[in-house]
Amino acid sequence: MTETKLSIKDLTKRYAAGLEPAVDRLNMEVEEGHLVALLGPSGCGKTTTLRMVAGLMDPTAGSIMVDGKEITHTPVNKRGMGMVFQSYALFPHMNVEQNVAFGLQMRQTPKSEQKKRVAAALDMVQLGHLGKRQTKELSGGQQQRIALARALVVEPTLLLLDEPLSNLDAKLRETMRSEIRSIQQRTRATTLFVTHDQDEALDMADRIAVMNGGLIEQFGSPTEVYERPRTHFVANFIGQANFLTARVGADTGAAPVGERYYKIDVDGFGQFGAVGVPGLTGSTHELVIRPHRLNVSLHPGVVGPESIAGTIERVSYTGDALAVAVRVGEKSLQAQLLTSSGDLPRAGETAYLSWVAEDAYLLPAPAKGLPE
Amino acid sequence: MTLLQNKIPPATHRGIEEGVLERAAGKRNRRTYLALLIPGLLGLLVSFVFPLAYMIRMSFNKGAPDGVIIETFTLETYIQPLTDPYYWRVTLDTFQMGVTVGVLCVLVSYPVALFLARSTSKYRGLLIAVAIAPLLTSAVVRTYGWMVILGTNGLVNSSLEGMGLITEPLKLTNNMTGVTIGLVEIFMPYAILAMISGFGRLNRQLEEAAGSLGASKFKVFTRVTLPLSLPGLLTAFLLVFVLAISTFITPRLLGGGSVQVLATEIYDQTTGLLNWPFAAALSVILLVLFGVIIAVYQRLTKKIGG
After folding, report:
1. What is the percent of chain B where pLDDT is above 90?
2. CA contacts within 13 A on the Cβ side of A282
3. H/E stretch holding A297
């Protein structure tokens, strides 16, 4: 049995009366040792949520519990959390060691133990040799690691990371991503991680909370939010997606993980297969197909009996892959193919699109504003 | 043909040529910068360097009664202030007044400056304007204002008497107390401005980081806020100190003739006794005082790692 470390109930933040809440009755449970990403566009309330958990901001309503204890109104310095800020917030008037030791000093840890733990924390981020340096002499990546060491040295109840990678250049970001993840797994620190970068979230997190407009749209593992998005927003925000409107017909049998296969009717293009949660028959739903799951053929009938014919609008070749935009009626569908040395499709040609049922997912909520 | 077209000059050659070109461009730029500096430098030369040199030269002349200046080269003008205990007293009083006004002014301005620097309110600009608005009134007017407030029958004394807290009016004007109160208020806008610009490294996130690491509000202040605002505090102190020891209007008016500082002394020597060489020598002593405090300031800022 895994323990619940952090439990958030109906957490709400309204900056001013009459304004839309920045965070709207948010509920979330985080398991001990998990890294949870709060993912969403700017203004979705993810940073506000993190700051309320940290104690840097008072919630308007709701509660926050850590290890079963209510901490909603506990002052920030009594929460024992470790936070890494977007700007790292290293103290410019202290050297690296003093920065890392700060939290221990505040806890009045004995000097000798302080020394040992600071050294261990710096070794953990591989900067043991820089202890006497001034923080401004360090590179962005090094500052980031010091900030991480400073937050972890106090053995925090929760590690909170506020867009920690957004100030690093692309290459360093990749390195730090795997480094933060491996440190997090070694220390088993339960971590809340704010990011707007879906790749970061998919790569690092055990669970992703996809946020939009102060609400969690979906809370699940990276594969769940990618493969089984609950809403249009999630499907659109994480990865690329093609959306088609489908009238769901007959249930044709059981699919894995309790889902069902359906016959569907796509905008009058014919009958196709798709998967979805049980009980969708008879209503209209949005169909999500990832570009690389869409089969493209230049000849009808090759990829299966049913296909949608369209005209190739644009082909973009990137060596390994080929992105193809195919116009079908009003819509432009994106497909991604692995290149082979054979003939490549060209713009203007007719292409036939098809998919296997498992790769086409019906969103569980009926499509709104569409004729039934 | 194609071979020729593809021929690229060796990289080393190109590098050298570019380097030479860059250096030439650098030289041209430097010349342009120097040319742009000339008007300002000329202005300074005429309005500052020359008068200063003239004043120093003047201090080695000899003053005779009725404003007669005897062109000579003597240290006599310096011997008098340096041997006469009266002038030691005046110099010491001047220094003491500068330090007192500087310290008090920084103390009362610090909370205001800290608030303004950290405020994220949309009225921040307006609030800063309000804080420095007193600069729009001349120091003379504000000094007269303080004379009214602090006088024997002024606001303070009549209020305290009315409340029965005192039976005899407090002596708040015509002494150093009045001068100090007046100067502290008059220099507050300068101190606030100097501090706000000196709080560069202070930011909210650092205080939040300290809090998240377990520091109480008091610890956040003593370990983070105060050390990081120290450069601003020092700059403000230096500025107020320099302004305080060189001002003569407020000490003259609020001091009512009983407060003697170097600035009032210089004024008397220049306009009353017409002893210009002596006034020049006192001015040089004042300059030395500036120099000492600026040297101390620079040592301190280096120490706290500005």
Report:
1. 53
2. 2
3. strand A295-297
User: Using a CB-CB distance cutoff of 8 angstroms, which residues of chain A are in contact with residue B215?
Assistant: 77, 102, 106
What is the rounded distance in angstroms from the CA atom of residue A54 to the CA atom of residue A256? 40
Selection from A45, A68, A343 nearest residue A196 by Cα: A45
Does A164 touch chain B if contact means CB atoms closer than 8 Å?
Answer: no
Name the band, by pLDDT with cuts 50, 70 and 90, for residue A344.
confident
pLDDT at B8: 43
State which residue of chain B sits closest to A150, comparing Cα positions: B213
Domains, in order of start, for chain A: 4-235 (3.40.50.300), 240-290+357-372 (2.40.50), 295-354 (2.40.50.140)
| Residue from B286, B257, B218, B231 nearest B55 by CA | B286
Q: Does B206 touch chain A (CB under 8 A)?
A: yes
**Interface test with chain A among B202, B207, B212, by most A beta carbons within 10 Å:** B212
Considering only residues 22 to 61 of chain A, which have any Cβ-Cβ distance to chain B shorter than 8 Å?
Answer: 54-56
Class of domain B76-305: mainly alpha
Q: Which two tokens stand for residue A220?
A: 């699940």
| pLDDT above 50 (res B3) | no
Q: What percent of chain A has pLDDT over 70?
A: 95
